Amino acid sequence: MRALSVILFLCGLLRTANALAGGLVVAVQTVNGRPLAGAVVTLQPLTGNSHSSAPVNSVMDQINRTFVPDLLVIPVGSTVAFPNSDSVSHQIYSFSPAHRFQLPLYRGKPYPPVIFDQPGIVTLGCNIHDSMLAYVLVTDAPYFGRADASGSWSVDLPHGTYRMTVWQPRMRESSQQDVTVGETDRTEVTVRLRKALEPAPLEGRHSWDAY
Q1: pLDDT tens string for the chain (211 positions)?
Q2: Which of 104, 98, 107 is nearest to 61 (CA)?
Q3: pLDDT value for 10
Q4: What is the C-alpha to C-alpha distance for residues 202 and 200, in angstroms, rounded to an integer?
Q5: Pick from 38, 26, 25: nearest CA to 211
Q6: How many angstroms separate the Cα of 12 from the Cα of each of 6, 22, 156, 171, 202?
Q7: pLDDT of res. 94
Q8: What pLDDT shows up at residue 9?
Q9: How many CA atoms lie within 13 A of 85 on its CB side?
């Protein structure tokens, strides 16, 4: 009987959790209505309790004179290791207000991981190779992700209202709006940019240069 009571209690908790959770699907499009793959979406609750995601340990390598990956989205307090697996030396730097740092000329793994303890967008470059470019987006939002090849990103989250921000390195505008996830099974939102993207650079190829 005791085991049966525990099972019924757990089932009740599961039903309650399902009743409080909803699905959100975000479609990100260019000004011409084409899917914007790789766009970053963050969701900050405006109702209920808000909490940041737990810090993670990430890696951004350097291969063939490019950053791999060239865009990371991490919670506040996370670390990023910057090994250099390339055949030449690199010197990473950032002048971004969210985090300024420099890793002098090196190959291999001579430096400890870098801690990103402030939210914001950190732009990375190499003092030796101007075409190398990458971004680390540090967020205190509990829900975040990147759009897939079809420009879509989805997440399950509690019912409520959220401040949604969409960002991509070549966007000419800020994109922010409030989204309410109700008691329906799924809420769908389409974000269509009002301005054309910045032109892709002549040198280097990046994951956000599809259009």
Answers
A1: 454 343 334 344 334 344 456 899 999 999 999 999 999 999 999 987 777 789 999 999 999 999 999 999 999 999 999 999 999 999 999 999 999 999 999 999 999 999 999 999 999 999 999 989 999 999 999 999 999 999 999 999 999 999 999 999 999 998 999 999 987 778 999 999 999 999 887 676 787 776 5
A2: 107
A3: 39
A4: 6
A5: 38
A6: 10, 18, 19, 45, 58
A7: 97
A8: 40
A9: 11
Beta bridge partners of 21: 158
Residue type, 193: L
Residue 74 near residue 139, CB atoms below 8 Å: yes
Structure tokens at 1: 């009987």
Q: How far apart are CA 166 and CA 41, in angstroms?
A: 5
Write down the residue that tokens 């101007």 correspond to. Answer: 130
CA angle 118, 71, 23 (to 5 degrees): 85
Any long-range contacts for 110-114 (C-beta under 8 Å, 24+ apart)?
111/82, 112/81, 113/57, 113/79, 113/80, 113/81, 113/82, 114/79, 114/80, 114/81, 114/82
Choose among 49, 43, 68, 52: nearest CA to 132.
68
Say how far apart CA 128 and CA 210 lie, in whole Å.
26
